[in-house]
Amino acid sequence: MEFAYFGPRGTFTEAALRRLPAAKGATTTPMPTIVDVLDAVRRGDADAGFVPIENSQEGTVTVTVDELVGGDPLVIAGEVVLPVTFVLASPKAPDAIATVASHPHALAQTRGYLRRELPNAEVHQALSTAQAAQRVVDGEFDACVCAPFTAEAAGLPVQAFDIGDNPNAETRFVHVVRPAAPPEPSGNDITSLVVYIDYDRVGALLGVLTEFAIRGINLTRIESRPTGEGLGRYAFFLDCTGHLADARMGEALMGLRRICADVRYLGSYPRDHSDEPVPPPAGLDNEDFAAAADWLGRLRDRGTA
Predict the structure, then answer these.
(1) Residue 3 pLDDT greater than 70, yes or no
(2) 261 is in which domain, residue-wise?
């Protein structure tokens, strides 16, 4: 098994990849961009890819979502949610730091600390936290914002720990493969979809949401992304609780297929989150759907239940 991931080595992505069960014993290859990772999977140069998709503070990693929405089809086979902790790493004392570098998402998540503790330092962007650390080692910058393990790998002293503005910050990463059958239901799953609505039809988005609501399916994420066809034309990226094998999810997908311009299935996979899934309302769990289907079958066979 060959995994491509958004590198270089020593980043949060690599740390999250180590927690993915499917990557145990796999060959892992860092790549410079998220697009490079996903294209390697599409071409068959890698069996799977591993990339960030959202952060609890900064929101969507738009490159990942846009590639899943509009690129050649890929599906999500798993996820890892990683708590994110930042440090200030530098061979210099804080009062001697004039320049700080890091990945834009890391800088955004430590904006308050940098403004408060290093108000006069120039802030520079890097392709990754690991690259920022290496550029400090090379003498290009005085300090970097990175993970503790990144500072340790680079041999940089840590001048301040836990500098993130949000102590509950998490980043979600996804395991991406070429289209294939999903893993078996785990009982706590997510199904990801892209729906393309008829942009000139009143109530088009409401119709999409109704397909889930009437079947007791909880949406954990909905986000609009431009299709590139012009202003006002959007696709919607959805995460919802449940699995493709669930009767209620199957009915919802059939409903979406009837009313949407197009639907792209992006996978059903185990949820990596401590929160328990929201239970469906009475009469809307999978057993209720199965019982109703049995009842309808008896009516069609015998004319009586």
Answers:
(1) yes
(2) 182-305
